[in-house]
Structure formats: structure tokens, C-alpha cells
Amino acid sequence: MRAVVYDRYGPPDVLRLADVERPVPKEDEVLVQVHATTVNRLDVHTREANRRGGLGVSLLSRLVSGVRRPRQRILGSEFAGEVAAVGAGVSEFAVGDRAFGNSGLRFGAHAEFMPAGIGFEEAAPVSDGGLNALTCLRQADLRDGRTILIYGASGAIGTAGVQLARHFGADITAVCSTKNLELVKSLGADRVIDYTREDFTRNGQTYDVIFDAVGKLPFTRCRASMKAAGIFLPTDGFGNLMRALWPSRRGDKKVVFQIPPRQTKQDILFLKDLVEARKFRAVIDRTYPLEDVVEATRYVGTEQKTGNVVLTIG
User: Fold this and answer.
1) pTM over cut 0.70
2) Mean pLDDT (10-residue bins), the chain, 314 residues
3) Comparing C-alpha atoms, which of 106, 48, 119 is closest to residue 76?
4) Which of 3, 175, 192, 241 lies 20 to 30 Å from 71 when distance is taken between CA atoms?
């Protein structure tokens, strides 16, 4: 079968299309013939061994993915496709079922039947941004009356975060660039701030929750914009990890970072139900054929994408 592989860390050019042996599912596993997948932030950081995060983050990344070279040669965590084979102990799925899901760091699979009424390209990008946003927001007790600012609201995690925060009933302020203001507002934001024209940390507004959906906002920069006992939800950053591990006093503003993230099949079911109720959708920026994975990866690496970048197969 065809797959995109890489044998060393580096720029997008280390990726190449190759023929690899078709996997055989174990007793409790399902083999999915993937029709659509994505290129996301996890793929970029893993391929680079997280060089952008500094030496400490790079070392941590390599301990997970392989010190000298990648342990797992095939990237990609999100998928949508058809079940091609099932292990002897699998009863929930059958060959030919349409499935979607996410493999996370181990590139295995949280899987569920695809939402009704959407195709493979629309289903593949539901899980990564959706699961990451859901994992974060559930730690913030979002509900009616709670205020949240979502920084980087036009990315994969950000667009998912806006829709989920709306579902939970929060009052949403979203921060993004000029070109995405209308999109983010259409997803459910109550108000949108154009970061090229306004610095939200200087407008005097405070929030119960600040969600950094792009991993670029230091806690120290936004601390004054948090209410007493406010919660900062990061999605990246070694410093944020250290702050989350440091015990905080009752009533303090704090960083909440779930380590490791607990993502379950029930979370996939939750997103599936929202998709079928038309209360959630994955925003897709560009779609590329698998053969153009290097070009797709370069685009994701610019950090200018809106929502998700999809790869189609076959």
C-alpha cells in the first residue's frame, strides 16, 4: 500500500511517498482504508522534533517520537475511511463500515462510525481540533454566564473551540486576523477582536477563561486580562507545562494543562452527535491529494491556515 513516510527529522522535504507493507489487525484492532486525513500541528512539530519550542521541548519531543530517528515512520493522526479488515475479537465494526477518528501521539485509533450525511473529506478533520478543544474546555466549567476569550480562533483548534464554547453556553470573545473575522463570528463568537488592530490585553476587559488555541500566548502577557480565580488553557509551551505542575493557592489565577490529554471514544461520540445535529463542523482551508503532501505540509508550516488542511487518498 502507499504511505507518506519519513526516516529522519527535518523540513517538509524529508517526507516521501513509498510502498509499505499492509498492516494486519491484531485480535482487538480494526484496519481502516483511509480515504482522507489531515496535516496538522502535531504532524509538523513531530516531523521537526519540535525545534520551534527550544531545546527543552525538542528533547521531550524526541523522547516520545524517537531520539535519533522517528520510531513511527508514518505521520497523520486524523482519518476517515472504510473498514478493510477486523481482528477476531472485534464485534462492533464490520468490513465496509465507514469510520472516522483520531490516533493521537501513538498513531493508533480512537474510531467511531462516521456522522451521517457527510463525506470522508468533511469527517477526517473533525477529531483533532475538536478533541483538543474539548479536552481543554471541559477543564474550565464553561456554562451560561462564564466568559471566555479564545486566542487564535481561526485555526483547527480555535474554530472547534468557538463552536464548543457556544454549545456550552459561554459568552465568547474571539481573537483572529482580519481575513477571518466574519468566519469566526459565523461560528458563534459574540464579539471578535482583530489582533492586527487591537491588543486585547490593553482594553481593560477581563475573562473567566482564556484559551490559547495556537500555543503562542504567554501566561504572563494575559494574566491581567483574567478575572480572580481565572483559568488559562494553553495548548503548547514548556513554560505552561511547568506552571500547570506548580501548585496554586485557592483563588489564584492558574494554568490548567491536562497531562497527558485524556481523549476517549465517548469524546468522539460527543463530536459525532454535534456534527449530525449540525451544531459543529470542521472548517477546511485547503484540500490536497496525498501526492502533494510536501506542499500541504509547507502550507501548514506557515501557520497561516484557517481551520484544517485535508489530504485525500485514492
Assistant:
1) yes
2) 90 92 90 93 81 47 69 88 94 94 59 85 94 94 96 98 98 98 98 97 97 93 94 84 69 80 84 96 97 96 95 90
3) 106
4) 241
